[in-house]
Amino acid sequence: MTTEPHNNNTDLSLAKQQSNKPLLSLCWDQGKLLMLDQRLLPEKIVFLELTTPEEVWEGIHTMKVRGAPAIGIAAAYGVVLGAYSFQGDNNKHWLEHVLAAADHLATSRPTAVNLFWALDRMKERAAQLAKDQSSRALRNEGLLAEAVAIHREDEEVCRKIGQHALPLFNSGMGVLTHCNAGGLATAKYGTALAPFYLAQEQGISLKIYANETRPVLQGARLTAFELQQAGIDVTLLCDNMAGLVMSKGWIDAVIVGTDRVAANGDVANKIGTYSLAVLAKAHNIPFYVASPLSTIDLDTESGELIPIEERPEHEVTEGFGKRTAPSGIKVFNPSFDVTPHHLITAIITEKGIIKPPFRDNLAALLKP
């Protein structure tokens, strides 16, 4: 299913958002979800108007929206759209309808734990609302308020991650990042990119290096784009140049986002992250992971148990419509890899910086 924007003026007004600030990937607008189609960046800025949970599912599944926090936010609004589509007045039937929409959205992508965290939160709120004898309109309003809260909380979480991370970076440092963990992947600021925006606000000069991030080029299309738009000094690298620039002494630190943190501190992130961590270790460069608490999954003991999504082979053989490999060639295209905890210097959360031993310190951080 393809949903085209219905109102070009809306697209333009959103596209012309504030300069020197991260683009917003999602916006709720009068009963519909506006989703920036990130597949079209950097050549086009197009916001899609989504009005059903099926359209949100397709937007997540086809990576029109990506980044663990943004996926969770989109799914939360998808549950609201599911509630809007219910026409009856029976509380029980309303709840069943909402839960079915949430369960369907949970099948869109398997790795990012934020998706399931946000959906569980929406289902819990729906169950609470269903106990009330309020009207369907009030139940829907309560569900929307929960989705908006998830959205707003993520913005604050990202800023706090940036505030905790910023002291790790001194003016003049070179910092390497991989994939996109910026404003396009979250409500605002990003996780791994948040300290870059805060550094800019405070007049701290950092030189950012962004890996292109094969095969879908999130680093080239998204990270380089949003940092350039914000006026931040950024240099784009092919993925296989990371070792060279490290050997030249250009990189003082590496910081990446994550889609899931296991109980022992292993992290799943975009494919290629593990290689960067190995290179950073070899060059004695600190390797940081920026992670909201909602991305920490204590129920998953280690990275070996994190489900790794495999993407279609055409992303490798026919990237962006141009065949670059022989027809019929076998392809392995995992979307993520797992970086073992012993390669990670610290995990930066909205509650502070977590250092080894990760199993003990993560558990203590999340203790009620």
UniProtKB/TrEMBL annotation:
InterPro entries recorded for this chain? IF-2B-related, IF-M1Pi, IF_2B-like_C, Initiation_fac_2B_a/b/d, M1Pi_N, NagB/RpiA_transferase-like
Query: Which residue positions does UniProt flag as site: Transition state stabilizer?
Result: 179
Which residues constitute the catalytic centre?
Answer: 259
The EC number of this protein is: 5.3.1.23
Pathway it acts in?
Amino-acid biosynthesis; L-methionine biosynthesis via salvage pathway; L-methionine from S-methyl-5-thio-alpha-D-ribose 1-phosphate: step 1/6
Q: Single GO molecular-function term? A: S-methyl-5-thioribose-1-phosphate isomerase activity
Biological process annotations from GO: L-methionine salvage from methylthioadenosine
Q: Which Gene3D superfamilies match?
A: translation initiation factor eif-2b, domain 1, Translation initiation factor eif-2b, domain 2
Enzyme group, top EC level?
A: isomerase
Read off the HAMAP family from this record. Answer: Salvage_MtnA
Put simply, this protein is called Methylthioribose-1-phosphate isomerase
According to its UniProt entry, this protein's organism is Paenibacillus lentus
The coding gene here is: mtnA
